């Protein structure tokens, strides 16, 4: 069941995907790649890296940008990469994404559809929660029903939309029959969706003493400061090499790199390109580059002026000099985008012509829209590498089209929450997820993290049709239609795909260098060790 070829033969819709190496799934998510079970030599060491024999013991300290006092360990509420990494350490999902963005079984030992693809039977592996209780079908159903609560803004709610959770049922202690609202050939992607963690039946409190089934157990949590976890010796996949894992919040990039250089941490998440270059050959620390890992964009709110006019949105598409943004904001560490998510993934519409800067046409479109002399505010923050630089570069590009852009700096602690509903234009980024997941979470009428507020009922219908189409060629054609519409009138100005740059102490071993963020081998702190 764990063999990729076996999965693809037995289950419809599970084909290997092309992927953009190391792309973050949610708004504000950075990328972290640590060695996992796939692509390794069986010891937790990244194959061919020469990291040696794993050593047991020690505490790994990992520095992340965090969410301040509002941070939570509720795995269904996480939005930042720090949240996701903590959730992965404490909890498990039924499935996760492999490096090619295909679904890989986790708590689910296997899955089997009926002939009509509208009922899927999930068999759970034998696993225990940290309190010794077995993971059961009742826990899975409780978790999914909690996520789907219409009164809550849980991240994965839209991803679970295909499931009729009232009709779904436990058919045994370790078997669940999911009844779907329509045939869904790629249903295992739902099981792997960001935030679909399994929690104990009835669990509601997570910040004081969360109980999961993940490779680490809870020790302590201070929001905005530190989270300490301890090895779970009873984990179904085997105990981690580390004794303890500590997540340390350091919002400033300079604080993360200085803590790494000073020996206060062994892992520093998300360094900027200049920092990476400065330390790459110095030898004191290791620099890990995850190529083309994150979508870089500006998000235009399409439900309010001036971006409720598609001519203004098209003008802004044409204002952007994407290569200048990649060179300036990312120091050349990336490649240009074409206003679409998922470059290199299955269904990506790479047949669309690359959009180039055209200031003359942008001016004409603005004049047609009555938006000559337009003034807009661009929200940005030092919350992510390249954001402030991109804002300044785009401000200068817009000025050549007669548009005044006022750059407004936001709080690093609340930026991702603030931009979801407020403002009109903001800096945005995302990591890896299937294109269909990006659409379901961000572009449908009922999507819970729709930062652009772009909505179209016909687009919703196309998405549902694609999810219900068994034939891969026909499904790809539908995704092509959706992307052509987004390319023409959507709210994401995707200007590039940047490298993520990580720093690690030379004593940290087992670090992988290929895994996209939001995939199985991302944040595999249970598979690394300290030499």
Automatic annotation (TrEMBL):
Where does the UniProt annotation place the signal sequence?
Answer: none
Where the record annotates domain Solute-binding protein family, the positions are 104-433
Task: Report the domain of life of the source organism.
Answer: Bacteria
Q: Which residues does UniProt call coiled coil?
A: none
Q: Which InterPro entries does the entry link to? A: Peptide/Ni-bd (IPR030678), SBP_5 (IPR039424), SBP_5_dom (IPR000914), TAT_signal (IPR006311)
Looking up PANTHER family in the UniProt record yields: MONOACYL PHOSPHATIDYLINOSITOL TETRAMANNOSIDE-BINDING PROTEIN LPQW-RELATED, PERIPLASMIC BINDING COMPONENT OF ABC TRANSPORTER
Name the chain's protein: ABC transporter substrate-binding protein
Organism encoding this protein = Streptomyces atroolivaceus
Top-down, what is the taxonomic lineage of the species of origin?
Answer: Bacteria, Bacillati, Actinomycetota, Actinomycetes, Kitasatosporales
